[in-house]
Model the fold of this input.
Amino acid sequence: MKNINLRNTKKEFIRRQASGMLLIAVLLLLLGSCMPGKRTARTFIEKKNQVAVMIVPPTYTFLYYYPYSYTMDSEKPSEGEEIENSHFLKEIDVERATRIFTDALLENLRKYDIKVFSPEQFDQFLSHDGQRYIFTVAQTEMVESDRQHTDRALIDTILYRQDFMLRTVERNTWFEFTEVDKEEGEAGMKVLYSTFFTTDNVDGRFRYRGLTGEVLYEYSSYLISKEDIYSLNHFAGTRNARYIFDFLLNRYIEQNARPFLSQPVNLRYIPSQDKLTRSRDDQQFIIMQP
Done:
């Protein structure tokens, strides 16, 4: 009969049990770190009604028009000279477009259940007990530009091409961000940039008719209109509201989360679903370097 060392067997059992528990603990930590900073983000969301944001709206929207240049080396035109040659911006009510942008920004920012103030409410803003932040629209602009789109096809050793002149309108905004409650040396203004655009679209292809030998180009197109420019301003205001909240959320995570294995990822908060998800680089502000 084989002798069994009970003492060694017990030690081996305890060692394996400890190793198993350690493995489970590591796996739990790894799973928890799949979205680092999520727990810290929840803390911010639970206290979001203590956050006060003052929005200093734009007083004017600058307009620029870049006509198509075959050399692509033309200088930026001045505002009053070539804007009359534009297709859309010359007909835009700039005050209306700016107002649409500002109203959408304020309306959608309030959906995050934070306190939103305008410059006229400065005293109430300063008397707020929680965290206070100022976002100043330092500059905003609409830029219309022309670009050439070319479709090509090689059919029976012959190269066919079809050219289209397409138009794009961009809505660019620069915010200056300041945290009121920081010491002067710590506050450090940040410049945040966002851009959105609408553009003509053409979808087509060459077709070869074997019976006749003809080559035809068939296409469908969506061309932007003046009303699309106003819709772009509303969309930009809505998205900038989201960017502002997510910027504050991720700033809080950066300052308060304890990194483990990896740095916290940028998160996006969806208030209608009370849900956190990862934010892509093109779904947030571009932080400008000083």
Remarks:
- Residues 30-34 have pLDDT under 50 and may be disordered.
- The radius of gyration is 28 Å.
- The chain has seven helices and eleven strands.
